[in-house]
Amino acid sequence: MSLPSRNSPTIKALIEKQKEKERNTIQVRVDILYRHAPFLKGACEHYSRGLDHSAINFPQTNDVVFKLFKAWLYKLHLGDLNATSNVALTNFCYPHMANLLDLYLFADMAKLPLLKNQCIAKYYKFTKATGYIMTPWLSYMWKYTTKEMLIRKFLLDLLTWEMPPLLFETNSKDFPEELRLELLINMGYVIQVARHGTSAIEKSNPLNDLNNYYEKVEKLDA
Questions:
Q1: What band does 179 get if pLDDT is binned at 50, 70 and 90?
Q2: CB-based burial of residue 123 (10 Å sphere; 0-12 exposed, 13-18 middle, 19+ buried)?
Q3: Residue 69 buriedness (CB in 10 A; 0-12 / 13-18 / 19+)
Q4: FRET pair for 142, CA 20 to 30 Å: which of 1, 6, 129, 186?
Q5: pTM for the model
Q6: Cα 133 to chain center, whole Å?
């Protein structure tokens, strides 16, 4: 497939294949990309400088995650899960949830708060539907995020307030040391709340309002 010219309505995104070493290429409409992901415009113009075609390079983004981003780009909405049965959701929750975490990191790089917020909402929906918390990805997320990022706050609160009692014991190797300390502090707070009864715990759960983990979104052009 030839690369689009400078005057083409599409741009070529160079992506890592998830299961192969070769690069993959995905075409995206330039006007849609620039309108809804304006931060990437500068990256595209920089990468394309001196070339006779328009392209952008994502060396650490796999093709599955970028395809999710592309689908979101055209609709500004992640696909609905209502049509998926709970059985199927449970069987395939791991890759879906892993992709959402990677997509969140991509959205953070691309400065897309709306997509970041939707990733958190969708991830929590998976968690509530399956009862599954992805502890194997905790070290990965703590490595590629900072303490100030809301995804960390979300995951920490998820573990603090909704983690099954035996999960930390059975999967202790999945918890990085920094997270262990933060979790210990949070658990101390929950113990204090628990003294006032079960209803107090339910009312105090910050996950009751996911707005606690959402970033401010500027109005986007339709």
A1: very high
A2: buried
A3: buried
A4: 129
A5: 0.84
A6: 14
